[in-house]
Design goal:
Structural class of chain A: mainly beta
Largest interface: A-B, 60 and 39 residues
Largest sheet of chain A: 8 strands, antiparallel
Helix content of chain B: 25-40%
Shape of chain A: globular
Strand content of chain A: 25-35%
CATH superfamily of chain A: BH3618-like
CATH architecture of chain A: Roll
Order of helices and strands of chain B: EEEHH
Oligomer: heterodimer
Helix content of chain A: under 10%
Radius of gyration of chain B: 21 Å
Strand order of the largest sheet of chain B: 1-2-3
Shape of chain B: elongated
Number of domains of chain B: 2
Chain lengths: 173, 90
């Protein structure tokens, strides 16, 4: 079962039907709205974030409409500390970004069946969430040199030159 | 599929809001200029396809996350030397 975090606070919850965890009570504050869905999954617009377990870098991104649909996600910065997501003006508009809004960035993780050691994360299609509105978007980084299959374990590649200067995840001026 | 022959400098109009210009033809490469409303994302198809395919794969077989977590804990020391950059293949 995923860890639901602090239960002592009184929070509004909804019930997420999931095939992996059964019915899960989730605080409304963990519902994420993806107006365009994820690429290839345009119909699933509402998800909840379920922590995998204490100390785990992984979370489940569970569809509210489809109990079978869940993705494993993680923060890309633990593995690629200088990872940068360049948002377009249109991205900012879709994310409803205002000046001080916190941005949360996740990478979708692929764990090959039978070979979890080969797990990778997708750095050209990060999931970016406006922490204030909980509206998110899978951003397409067309011009980046990141990999869509960045190994998560045993990354021993030598350092390569850093990405060109960019606004990164900074809030708009 | 509609197939049109165009020369450099010519364009194709799609509906009211989308114009695709043939900017330059050089050897085997064509440079296109695309004018489209901001809400219509324009991407190179292979980037879009790669992300979509990776999403499908990630959703289809979320392998053993418990085992992945265990491996993560074991490998913690190695990771910080890593970098996300890869050479472009296209």
């Amino acid at each position: 079962m995923p860890d639901q975090g602090n239960r002592t606070e009184q929070t509004e919850t909804i019930t997420a039907q999931t095939s992996r965890f059964g019915a899960v009570q989730v605080p409304l504050s963990q519902v994420i709205h993806l107006p365009q869905g994820l690429l290839g999954f345009p119909a699933d617009r509402y998800f909840v974030l379920l922590r995998h377990r204490q100390d785990s870098p992984f979370l489940w991104l569970q569809s509210l409409a489809n109990p079978d649909l869940a993705f494993v996600i993680t923060s890309p910065f633990q593995i690629v500390p200088d990872y940068q997501v360049q948002l377009t003006n249109e991205d900012r508009r879709e994310l409803d970004l205002a000046g001080d809004d916190p941005l949360v960035t996740y990478a979708l993780v692929t764990i090959p069946r039978g070979n979890p050691a080969a797990m990778t994360m997708n750095l050209i299609g990060p999931l970016v969430i406006n922490g204030r509105t909980r509206v998110g978007k899978q951003v397409v980084l067309s011009e980046s040199t990141y990999s869509h299959r960045q190994p998560i374990l045993a990354v021993t590649r030598a350092e390569t030159p850093a990405a060109p200067e960019s606004a990164g995840m900074a809030a708009p001026p | 599929m509609l197939v049109l022959a165009r020369k450099a400098g010519e364009a194709v109009q799609i509906g009211d809001g989308i114009t695709i210009y043939v900017v330059e033809i050089r050897g085997r490469q064509v440079r296109l200029g695309i004018e489209a409303p901001a809400h219509l994302p324009v991407h190179r198809s292979e980037v879009y396809d790669r992300i979509r395919d990776e999403n499908l794969q990630a959703a289809e077989a979320p392998g053993d996350l418990g085992e992945a977590f265990r491996l993560w804990g074991e490998g913690k020391g190695d990771r910080l030397a890593g970098s996300g950059k890869q050479d472009r293949t296209d």
